[in-house]
Amino acid sequence: MKNFLSTRTLFKANPTLGSAAIALATICAMGTAAAEEAQIIELTQVNCQFVESENGTNHGFESTMKSDCETIHQESGDERLAASKTIELKPGKYIFRVTNKNVEYPLGFYLRGDGLVGKARLPKVSGGGLDLGATKDYEITLKEGDYVYSCPLNSTLDYKLRVSAS
Looking at the DSSP assignment, which residues form a beta bridge with residue 159? Predict the structure, then answer.
């Protein structure tokens, strides 16, 4: 909108520029605003996992409570995490759009810096109330660094996310 405002000021100072100049400045400002919009990252939660994070595989786990997932992770968590997909992004604005596809109990989402230092210096976002079939958006501006994301209520693995300008 800065371009629009400065063009408006210029128009007041020089009315011969006409409304076409203001229209052009408005289009430019809209393009700038669009460039600053958040990119959407879609994630689907099923019992004990995020599908996209495990390379699109729904393992078909059965769970009626968090402790069921914890037992599943004890048996296969290390192997699945080693094979999981690390999301790689550039710094900027993001919306993590999370869907509870088939989990009977309410879920959430928690994205934070990896490790003690990462938790202290990197931004985080979290929230709950993600009922069966519901989708919620979690907006965050990510800085460079290593992150993890999970659902503590569904007890998913701590999946990896890396933000780098290169």
Answer: 149
pTM for the full model? Answer: 0.78
Q: How far apart are CA 60 and CA 51, in angstroms?
A: 10
Q: Name the burial class of residue 106, with classes exposed (0-12), middle (13-18) and buried (19+) by CB atoms within 10 angstroms of its CB.
A: middle
Quick: pLDDT tens for 95-146: 999 999 999 999 999 999 999 999 999 999 999 999 999 999 999 999 999 9
Exposed/middle/buried for residue 112 (C-beta within 10 Å: 0-12, 13-18, 19+): buried
CA distance 23 to 15: 14
CB atoms within 10 A of CB 11: 16
The widest CA-to-CA distance across the chain, in whole angstroms, is 75
> How far is Cα 112 from Cα 107, in angstroms, rounded to an integer?
17
Q: Quickly tell me which residue has 């810096």 as its tokens.
A: 113
Residues 6+ apart with CB under 8 A from 74: none
Distance CA 48, CA 159 (A): 12
DSSP conformational letter for 37: S
Q: Compute CA distances 165 → 116, 133, 142, whole Å.
A: 22, 35, 11
